[in-house]
Design brief:
2 copies of one chain form a homodimer. By secondary structure, chain A is of the alpha/beta class. Chain A has 14 helices and 8 strands. In chain A, 47% of the residues lie in helices and 12% in strands. A 6-stranded parallel beta sheet of chain A has the order 1-8-5-4-2-3, sandwiched between helices. Chain A is globular. Chains A, B: Residues 9-175 form the Alcohol dehydrogenase iron-type/glycerol dehydrogenase GldA domain. Chains A, B: InterPro entries: ADH_Fe/GldA, ADH_Fe_C, ADH_Fe_CS, BDH-like.
């Protein structure tokens, strides 16, 4: 097991009817900016619940944060923060709204001229404007971690940021919100959380027995609840397990002491930036090819995953490892998620070369748990995913 | 799944050579009280490592905190805190030293006349004197939770306290400390952590799929590493997994959203108070009888535990559940832990009646996950454990 540090101060408030606890978590004298996305919260009743819960707090609103939170839109929100002397941010939404809010938390206190530098210059946020979240879409785990991914349409870039100042002070997780989420988004959330676990687990054995079992526990739980959530999103038991699994998949716990990969995300982000494919679906496109291409480096963990998660106990290590990749792809397909780039666009010619070039231009010369994934290898993996 | 709130702000610093990071975690201007136990840290080198790591910080020392931290001793430490204007506490030890430090953290800021009231009047500590820990004995999980158990010899009482102000600010976990722990203490630590998980798991199914799997993960890991740790405590891989499992067994995570029992601890504490039997050993004495006595209420979870942790897949629910109790008792025995009260004392006559009376006198009329364990039932369980 590798040495590690772990600190996660976010307060989770989980369960039925928890949105009404909102006002207790925000200082009475705060001036709050309520941030949300495309307005679905106004249709499903969550907006009304939040407004009622906020009571007499002084609240300004900013809606319209798009999926893959866009820098230009966030810069408009930043103007509101400055103009209105906002002191507290409240994200009501999924990963995009929460990630956008994290960017604003950092940008609001940023001393430089161009907040985009936070992303391009890898500036760690030690202290941001305080914020909380009401999660409306389980998927990214952003509600209990300190990372964010921001998109800039102008340059077709999608970059990550983070730092200990970016943990939400609190996150309210009411699994009842899942009842009104469209099936497409549910399938995306399941795929996203599942892949988050794989990125932190599907590397090589390092003797972190408990972290491995925790990762497998999340994968098993997602596999168990996925068909139930899709068949009936009002099934509270399935919804609650889905929601908590998504949070635990990326709150830092399972990555402590182990190597992690994240190459699937790095490649997937480019597919979203180039084609606008849903984030989760890009992961399902890249993951099977990535695991096949890096089979030798990952086969021990693939075989362990085969045995413990998919109950594949027959055959050699190679047999089990390969079968596990097939099972993973079949799982995504069963959720209604296509796993080839050509399922999403007919314009894929040259994509692999373009992504490899972008990685080289950014100086990303060795991704993955062994830092061995060169732009040339990235090109091959993306081609395998056509 | 039940509604829950979860917040655990303790910073964990885990791994080889981490004690040297100590000074960075304590404010430069702090006046530190270094608390420790019977002096084993002076023999095994940890004291020297800590003193070196503390560098130029202003440090006063208080040693001699006994196992089952004793109120009278702690009151002497409280006098030192007041006399020396201490501002920061540092526990270097196992659960007893850390629990004692938590009592002092609370008592140092307590406004009342008699700090014992914190325990007898169940006063929650919202804010205590800040403290950190260097863990020298994995077992209790106290290094990452906000609870403590304090003993008062004078009244033969052993009572619990807690509150959000009692999380350590940081805890340093260097698995290398395990190399010098005597076998008896290692066996105790394994048993203690194992039973902590059982208390939060062996109740009834409530559909908390992930919490169940996390609990099973900790049990499986403890079973896997226990013989290795006992055979060779310098085996770093086994030691690291043992240490992290003990912390995760009682840092709040696995108890969120599920019922918990804790009757084994309640009865066990009385055996320590009456006979001075090691805490962990009292749990191993009580647990098998407790599960047999409450068989019908717990058999579904017992059978799940049988299947997933012990791979017992044959037979009826009752068969599997019963076999799991046998496996648990055998596991304790394999660690060198006796599981009958008569193995520890020949003076056990009347113990069951005495404990039942104490529970009744304290108004503890319904322990366990169903609050159904009356003093009469406690008497029967303790008798079964003779």
């Amino acid at each position: 097991m590798n040495n590690f540090e772990f600190k996660n101060p976010t307060k989770i408030i989980f369960g039925k009817g928890t949105i009404e606890k909102l006002a207790k978590e925000i200082p009475n004298d705060a001036k709050v900016l309520l941030l949300y996305g495309g307005g679905s919260i106004k249709k499903n009743g969550i907006y009304d619940q939040v407004k009622t819960a906020l009571g007499i707090l002084d609240v300004v609103e900013f809606g319209g944060i798009p999926a893959n939170p866009e820098y230009a839109v966030l810069m408009k929100a930043l103007k509101v923060i400055k103009a209105e002397n906002i002191t507290y941010l409240l994200a009501v939404g999924g990963g995009s709204v929460i990630d956008g809010t994290k960017f604003l938390s950092s940008a609001a206190l940023f001393k430089g001229d161009a907040p985009w530098d936070i992303l391009t210059k890898n500036i760690r946020t030690e202290k941001g404007m305080p914020f909380g979240t009401v999660l409306t879409l389980p998927a990214t785990g952003s509600e209990m971690n300190s990372g964010a991914v921001i998109t800039r349409e102008e340059t077709k870039e999608k970059l990550a940021m983070g730092g200990p100042g970016l943990f939400p002070e609190f996150s309210i997780l009411d699994p009842q919100v899942i009842a009104s989420i469209p099936e497409r988004q549910l399938a995306n959330g399941l795929t996203d959380a599942f892949t988050h676990v794989l990125e932190q687990y599907m590397t090589y054995p390092i003797g972190a027995l408990l972290q491995d079992r925790f990762a497998e526990s999340i994968l098993q739980t997602l596999i168990e609840v996925a068909p139930k959530v899709l068949a009936d999103p009002t099934d509270y038991k399935a919804a609650a397990n889905f929601m908590w699994s998504c949070t635990m998949a990326l709150n830092g716990l399972i990555q402590k002491g182990v190597p992690s990969d994240w190459a699937v995300h790095a490649m997937g982000h480019e597919l979203t930036a180039l084609f606008g494919i849903d984030h989760a679906r890009t992961l399902a496109v890249i993951a099977p090819s990535h695991y096949k291409f890096n089979f030798d480096a990952k086969k021990e963990k693939l075989a362990q995953y085969a045995e413990r998660v998919w109950n594949i106990t027959q055959g050699s290590t190679d047999d089990k490892a390969y079968a596990a990749i097939e099972k993973t792809e079949a799982f995504f397909n069963q959720l209604g998620i296509d796993t080839k780039l050509s399922d999403y666009t007919k314009d894929y010619d040259g994509t692999a070369e373009e992504i490899a070039k972008r990685f080289a231009d950014r100086g990303w010369l060795g991704l993955g748990e062994h830092q061995s994934l060169t732009p040339e290898k990235v090109e091959k993996i993306v081609k395998m995913a056509y």
